[in-house]
Amino acid sequence: MSAIDWVIVLGLNLLVFGYGLVRSRETKTNLDWFLGGRSLPFWIVAISLFATSVDSGDIVGVNGMTYLEGMSVLTTWWLGVVTGYVIAAFFVLPPMYRAGLFTNAEYLEYRFGPAARVVSALVQFQYRTNILAGIAISLQLTLTLVMGLDEISAWIAVAAFAGMATLYSARGGLKTIAWVDALLTVAMITGILVLWSVLWNVAGGWSGAVEKLALKGGSELPRYLLHIGISRPGSPDPLVVTAAWLILGAAYPIVNHSETMKLFGARSLWDVKMSVLLASGMTMILMYFNGTLGILGRAIWPETLQRPDQIYPLLVNEFLGPGLKGIVVAGVIAAAITTYEGIGSALAALCTRDIYARLFVRDREDSHYFRVSRWVTPFVVAASFAYIPFILRFENIAGFFIRVTSVFVIPLMTVYLMGVFTRAHRKSGSIGLAVGSGYGILALVGAGLDLFPVWFTDKFAAYVWSIVATSGAMILTSFFLGRDPASSLPRGQVGGWLDRSRQGVPDLVNSPFELHGRTVPLWARPNLWAGLVMAASLLLVFYVFW
């Protein structure tokens, strides 16, 4: 990279670091750290949701996937994440928000008992540290292939960026993270659009990309890369693959506390709902520009890559000149920082409230748990690096994530949904988690040893079977033990600091309009916008690109 590129990359990140440290001084209480004072407007929550959902792993790893699989991968965001956002904000989160809960795992204790709460925290720890490891690999590839660093220097730089994000997020919590994300999102979006515009011109638009792809792999290659409903040879039926991407994407906002933590910080229930709808629109638009880079790269890159994850940094290095290269690299780093800070603080919240304060130290002063949350944040980020050797054994970053997510994450999502939408028995939650995770482990081990039929272990079919196994076990348990007469209501008290901290949560506000004695106008009603967003999602997947 040129000197101007280094100035852009280092200058932007020093600016972000300084801004984060300044904002972190505003965090004074546990309510600020965990819930942002429950004062965040919908637009800042939306930007923060988007910033965490589109990380550098998505920029690098997803383009490795679209390089191989094509447009079908984008179903995860266009249909899955959007559907999950709507389900979470309109159905799953409102009972938790009304009750003044601090974490989504906390809800499971009231609904299914303390074991389900602890398991949820542990599953999320495994799930999200896996993501952080993928981000580290994405950054390392970018730093070596684009910035020209040697392998050791690149890993040191990755650790430095992770540490930078951890420092101000540990000090400031959600109140700092949400506002810093606004600055980082601008850098991330700019980088994506700059590279896409350049590659679009190099490829000659879609028509030029189609011609180049056909020269490489015949007429079938552009057909399955550019259409969701046309599978590549040897792949499962497109509807099975689409269902898997839908489930995978929907699990993200339903299970993932790095998203629900931000929603809990919204100033009203109206802001909760409107924030996910704005975040959905941003995600659908930007993931089109981001995800199609892998397809354009396959069209214009002269050779077939053994590790597809390299396509993004190779394209940046080959086709961008001085200045533009720095902007794009700064965007990749910004995307990584948003996720390091978001996941680090969310997992610290789960570790502090749902494990440490629930099981070990139950009744200390607020300042004690404040310090614990801050110290746990860097531990979470450091622990994520242990996943890196396992991910590197797979063909690409996303491959490892797809394979392991169905083991624990999908059963956990199913338990949340069953808890909200059914009157499943209180004991069924732990049983469902055990059965669903048991299937996931069998499928994971069996896929490597050829112990079971392909339909039982296929990475896409596993998502459907995981839901069937978990919900089936919960239904059978409820059949024999009876239904829960109060499935949507919190049960009892857990005592100590956990109950005491909830007393400081502000009273419920349904919408900011009611503070001024007004009803929500028609144009601002969440149900209307939810219908429009879901319609756009279905059109993209099943009509425009099917």
Structure commentary:
- It is a single chain.
- The chain is mostly helical.
- The chain has helices at 3-24, 30-35, 42-53, 56-69, 75-99, 104-112, 114-145, 151-203, 205-217, 220-226, 238-255, 257-264, 269-300, 311-319, 324-360, 366-384, 388-391, 397-421, 428-449, 454-457, 461-481, 496-502, 526-544.
- The protein has 23 helices and no strands.
- The model has no long low-confidence stretch (mean pLDDT 87).
What fraction of the residues are assigned to beta strands by DSSP? under 5%
Proportion of residues in helical segments: over 70%
Order of helices and strands: HHHHHHHHHHHHHHHHHHHHHHH
Q: How many whole angstroms does the radius of gyration measure?
A: 23 Å
The global form is: globular
- Measured distance between first and last alpha carbons: 40 Å
| Largest sheet report | none
User: What is the number of E strands?
Assistant: 0
Derived from helix and strand composition plus strand pairing, the structural class reads mainly alpha
What is the overall pLDDT average?
Answer: 87
Unreliable parts = none
Q: Determine the number of helices (DSSP H or I, runs of at least 4 residues).
A: 23
Summary tags:
546 residues; globular
How would you summarize what this structure contains?
This protein has 546 residues and is mostly helical. The protein is 77% helix and 0% strand. It is built from 23 helices and no strands.
Question: What is the topology?
Answer:
Elements (H helix, E strand, L loop, with lengths): L2 H22 L5 H6 L6 H12 L2 H14 L5 H25 L4 H9 L1 H32 L5 H53 L1 H13 L2 H7 L11 H18 L1 H8 L4 H32 L10 H9 L4 H37 L5 H19 L3 H4 L5 H25 L6 H22 L4 H4 L3 H21 L14 H7 L23 H19 L2
Helix pairs in contact: 1-8, 1-15, 3-8, 3-12, 3-13, 3-15, 4-7, 4-13, 4-15, 5-11, 5-13, 5-23, 6-7, 7-8, 7-14, 7-15, 7-16, 7-18, 8-9, 8-13, 8-15, 8-16, 9-10, 9-13, 11-12, 11-18, 11-21, 12-15, 13-23, 15-16, 18-19, 18-21, 19-21
